[in-house]
Amino acid sequence: MADEDDRRKPAERRTPSPKDETAMPRRARDSGRVRAAIRSELEEVAEDAADNAPKKVRASAPNVISLENISLAFDEPILENVSFAAKEGETVVVVGESGTGKSTILKLILRLLVPEQGRVAIDGEDITHLTFDDALKVRQKMGMVFQGAALFDSMTVYENVAYPLREHTTLTEEQIIARVQEKLEFVDLEPDKVMDQLPSELSGGMKKRVGIARGLANNPEIMLYDEPTSGLDPLTTATITYLIIKLQRELKVTSVVVSHDIRSAFRMASKIALLSNKRVGFFGTPEEMTGSDDPYIREFLGGF
Amino acid sequence: MRATLSLSHDIDHVILDGVNDAAKRGVYSLQEFFVLAGKALGFIFVKPFYAADMFQQMDVIGVGSLGIVLLTGFFTGMVLALQASVTLSTLGMTELVGKLVAGSMVRELGPVLAGLMVAGRVGSGIAAQLGSMRVTEQIDALNTLGTDPIKKLVTPRVLASLIMLPLLTVINDFVGIVGGNVIATFYLDQPAATYWRTVWEQMLSGGFTARYIPNDFVQGLTKPFVFGGIISLVACYHGLKTSGGTEGVGLATTRTVVTASILILVTDYFLTQILLALF
Questions:
Q1: What is the interface pTM, i.e. ipTM, of the complex?
Q2: Is the pLDDT of residue B139 over 90?
Q3: A150 closest CB neighbour out of B48, B137, B147
């Protein structure tokens, strides 16, 4: 019994609280200005997070995204009997160790991959058996932010964000410019400065933001994020996390975030799905997760 | 004894399985390639049509390759005339050098050399670009944004190659014949008029299609059209299939140049046989 309590302690210390946000790497403390900037940013995020997350969604809200008993294998099994659902306005964060098929889940939702068993439904419509053209249409409901932003490097920032509008809407050029400016401002970029730049001229964090702006351009009802905070410094990580929360709060989009960054996950998640050993080992709210006695969950949380 | 038998049986099994797997992979790749080719060509007639992308590719493939095609053509024409003059002078028939250069350039060397040069320059470029787009998830991004990557990326490149390679070949042929003229004039002391008359005789000697089109032209323009398709489709196929990061991009580029070059040379033989039988 005593052992069990000991094991729980480090994990509990990891649960997000505003105090915890100041625990920065030592090197960051060396510079007073950087430290102050990071601290104020993190505090802001923490306050925002406290206001909003975990977002409570009506239990009766319809499932916007649902995965039912999905199995998938390439050369060897990747997912086995995976099920979870995201209700309207919810943010589901899929966490798990590297190589557990987290990104595959996003590809299934986008129908870039088709499961061998089970079904994926968007707004109640089964998308597993759609033709290629119909799948393209369903994808227009979704905005996707890729791990490396995946901006088209032959196009400027403006052309990147305008791309989905040019492809799928009949907006005039003025309307497109207005929409692109609006989305760039939403992600806290200055449109006049960045619009004519090429992706190669942007920093990692800026690329991610442009990626989010492009995902948002067509006002999707679903946003998908693949490792939105990987490879970013703590300050940028905090701002991207803040952006995802802001998006959830202001635009009420349903989101699925794939991440191994448990700290950000707790801040933005309505529900967390933990992938382990090709299955969903846990699916529930962040509170339920921290309160769980499951040894694997405790170990997983303890690792962060 | 029985143990030895079963061991050799196992080895047979392993070899057979290996051959079987390799054959399956080969057939599967071939199928994938033809599916890509079918889609890319089919999309020419389906809206939306990415005209801007096509013109950009025409610029990259056609105008961009002009320099190397001019150089290759000119020097090939010159060396052809030089070599031919050695043989022809022993027969005392050096006035036929124009005929020989024109015949070789228009029917064979023009299309093949332009094809090989474009395969090296443009094929590798396409494979590297699409390969990088694949590994940086830009292809997935296109799909996600509701665009068919084949329609957006492959069709414009294939169309641009189909249009530009015959044009490049015509330029290659012409520059080659001019190169021959330089040798004929300065090395063989042949008047330009004589040279060009024999060139023209060669063009007309092969007969005509539809009364007015010399058969040499039909042969000389069918080939680059086919080669253009081969280069762009092979490059797009390997580019889109890239996996394994930057190393994969390098591999895709190499495979494209090797496969396209070999295909050009092999197809050239069979195409020549077919065209000679037809015209």
A1: 0.74
A2: yes
A3: B137
Query: Could you read off the pLDDT of A58-117 as tens digits, one per residue?
Result: 666 788 898 888 888 887 888 888 888 898 888 999 988 777 778 888 989 988 888 888
Residue A241 sits in a domain whose CATH number is 3.40.50
Asked, for residue A82, whether it belongs to a domain, the answer is no
The whole-angstrom separation of Cα A77 and Cα A272 is: 23
**DSSP letter string, A178-190:** HHHHHHHHHTT--
With CB atoms and an 8 Å threshold, state whether B141 touches A168.
no
Question: Within a domain: residue A158?
Answer: no
**Amino acid letter at B213?**
I
Q: Which domain holds residue A228?
A: 2-53+94-100+221-302
Residue A144: which of B48, B133, B144 has the nearest Cβ? B144
Quick one: tokens of B33? 């390639």
Burial letters A118-145, b for 16+ CB under 10 A, else e: bebbbbeeebbebeeeebbebbbbbbbb
CB contact under 8 A, B141 and A107: no
pLDDT exceeding 90 applies to what percent of chain B?
59
Q: How confident is the model at residue A21 (pLDDT cuts 50, 70, 90)?
A: very low
Report CA A256 to chain centroid distance, whole Å. 5
Q: For residue A15, what pLDDT band results from cuts at 50, 70 and 90?
A: very low
Q: Terminus-to-terminus CA distance in chain B, angstroms?
A: 65
Backbone angles phi, psi at A84, to 5 degrees: -165, 165
pLDDT at A10 over 50: no
Dihedral sign computed on CA atoms, order B26, B31, B36, B37: positive
- The H or E element spanning position A96 is strand A91-96
Nearest to A146 by CA among B194, B18, B136: B136
Nearest CA in chain A to B140: A112
Angle at B175 (CA atoms; ends B174, B180), nearest 5 degrees: 100
The answer, for A110 touching chain B at a CB cutoff of 8 Å, is yes
Per the structure, the count of domains in chain A is 1
Which residues span the domain enclosing B245? 64-278
A145 found inside a domain: no
Cα A130–Cα B233–Cα B42 angle in degrees, nearest 5? 45
Q: What is the number of domains present in chain B? A: 1
- Alpha-carbon distance B261 to B97, whole Å? 29
- Tell me if B145 and A147 make a contact (CB, 8 A cut-off): no
Kindly list the residues from chain A whose CB atom is less than 8 angstroms away from the CB atom of residue B48: 167
Q: Which contacts qualify for B265-274: CB closer than 8 Å, 24 or more apart?
A: B265/B112, B267/B226, B267/B227, B267/B230, B268/B108, B268/B111, B268/B112, B268/B115, B268/B223, B268/B227, B271/B222, B271/B223, B271/B226, B272/B107, B272/B108, B272/B219
Strands A91-96 and A271-276: parallel
- Residue B187, Cβ density class (10 Å: 0-12 exposed, 13-18 middle, ≥19 buried): middle
Interchain CB contact of A208 with B (< 8 Å): no
Question: Is A12 part of a structural domain of the chain?
Answer: yes
Cβ atoms of residues A258 and A227 within 8 Å: yes
∠ CA B249-B252-B256, rounded to 5°: 145
Residues B153 and B130: beta-carbon distance below 8 Å: yes
Give the residue among A148, A257, A267, A82 at the shortest CA–CA distance from B245: A148
